[in-house]
Amino acid sequence: MSVKKLLTSSIKRMRKTDNLLGLLDETILDVCLICNEESWLLSLTGNTISISQYNNETSHVTIHGDREAMKTLFNGDEFLLNLKKRGDLSATGRLRDLLLLESLWYLSKDLRLRDNS
After folding, report:
1. Is 116 a member of any domain?
2. Which domain holds residue 60?
3. Taxonomically, which superkingdom (predicted)?
4. b/e map of 74-87 (b: 16 or more CB within 10 Å)?
């Protein structure tokens, strides 16, 4: 499965999670996601989340890793900072932004997956 499909799936879960988008009311955050040959820009603007092809735009956060690390992150199975600490992926940006992203992915984790944790 491509990184775009994994990312799209995680965004669908975010949109379905009650009150999660309300946390983003005044957020403006662009995230560059790089995995092998794929580069995507995740834009969070207010309660709108969008994905586009990354074309060297300025971003607040950059996350670089392999597909398995991205899958683990997008599914909410592991926190971004833990993945970074272990060296599974690299992430640059303000700590506040990194914490917001890891919270979004964790809080949108499938309930089925949460019950198995």
Report:
1. no
2. 3-108
3. Bacteria
4. bbbebbbeebbeee
Strand 28-35 versus strand 61-65 pairing type: parallel
pLDDT digits (tens, 9 = 90+) for 62-79: 999 999 999 999 999 999
Whether 115 is in a domain gets the answer: no
Is 117 a domain residue? no
Distance in angstroms (rounded) separating the CA atoms of residues 42 and 51: 5
Q: Domains in the chain: how many in total?
A: 1
> Residue type at 12?
K
User: Quick one: pLDDT band at residue 18, thresholds 50, 70, 90?
Assistant: low
Q: What percent of the chain has pLDDT over 90?
A: 62
Give the contacts of 14 (CB within 8 A, at least 6 positions apart).
Answer: 20, 21, 49, 104, 108
- Mean pLDDT value across residues 70-95: 95
Residue 22, SS3 per DSSP: helix
